[in-house]
Amino acid sequence: MDGSEAGTRALDWAAGEAGVRRVALRLLHALPEPRAGRGNGPERDEARRLLDRAEQRVRRRVEGVEATGELVEGDAASALVARARDAGMVVVGTRGSGGLAGLMLGSVAFKVAAHSPVTVALASAVREPTTGRPEIVAGLDGTSAGAVLAEAFREASLWQAPLRVVHAFRFFQVPDPVHSAELAALLRRHRRAEERRIEEALAGWRTRFPDVPVTAEVVNDSARKALPRVSAGAQLVVVGPHDHRDPLMPLGSVTYTVIHRCGCPVLIARPA
């Protein structure tokens, strides 16, 4: 909690999430370590006031949520990752008080999203419900489908929202008119195989969460294009980290693009 506009939106989303989950909410604010020979008394007092205001805001917005502020010294991302070991979820804004306009993801949010041991919600953009029940969108890949479905079904059940499961699969194109019919038939077989695979993955979750209405679709597109498009009216998008074990891209290009382009909170699911 840093007092920024993005941080306040993340606070409001976290308060609502804590309310439906019926869990306590810990608010963390990190102060830079004081320079040698210089105290940080005024900064500490202001930070304490910021946390007090945040606690009061949570209590006003969501009845029954226990909110406790904690002040730490040092790097904010490291502190959040360390506290995450005892948490069910970490919620951050995509840019903090020091963020530069135009950046996709602030440094604190990026580090937390990349290194948190638990699920991370990037919740700067909070979409207010319009009509009906805005859906939750889950983007499946081949590496973290179980974690994504677990979080997506839980969120849909908690918020009484419909769930839309999307698997983006880049099929080959059919440029050759001579063999177009044969290739088109092969494409249809590939699509049906992917659809069966998704339905098999959903079967157990449908049984476990019978209250959640689910639709599943396989789209012939890249995930980076498909997920922002299909989530245009969603209240939440759930994805995996898409970790390709590249230290330079710990989140993967799909997750990074979804965070930047989706106009709603994004949940990065981690295996329990």
From TrEMBL:
<protein>
    <submittedName>
        <fullName>Nucleotide-binding universal stress UspA family protein</fullName>
    </submittedName>
</protein>
<dbReference type="InterPro" id="IPR014729">
    <property type="entry name" value="Rossmann-like_a/b/a_fold"/>
</dbReference>
<feature type="domain" description="UspA">
    <location>
        <begin position="136"/>
        <end position="270"/>
    </location>
</feature>
<dbReference type="InterPro" id="IPR006016">
    <property type="entry name" value="UspA"/>
</dbReference>
<feature type="domain" description="UspA">
    <location>
        <begin position="1"/>
        <end position="122"/>
    </location>
</feature>
<comment type="similarity">
    <text>Belongs to the universal stress protein A family.</text>
</comment>
<dbReference type="InterPro" id="IPR006015">
    <property type="entry name" value="Universal_stress_UspA"/>
</dbReference>
<dbReference type="Pfam" id="PF00582">
    <property type="entry name" value="Usp"/>
</dbReference>
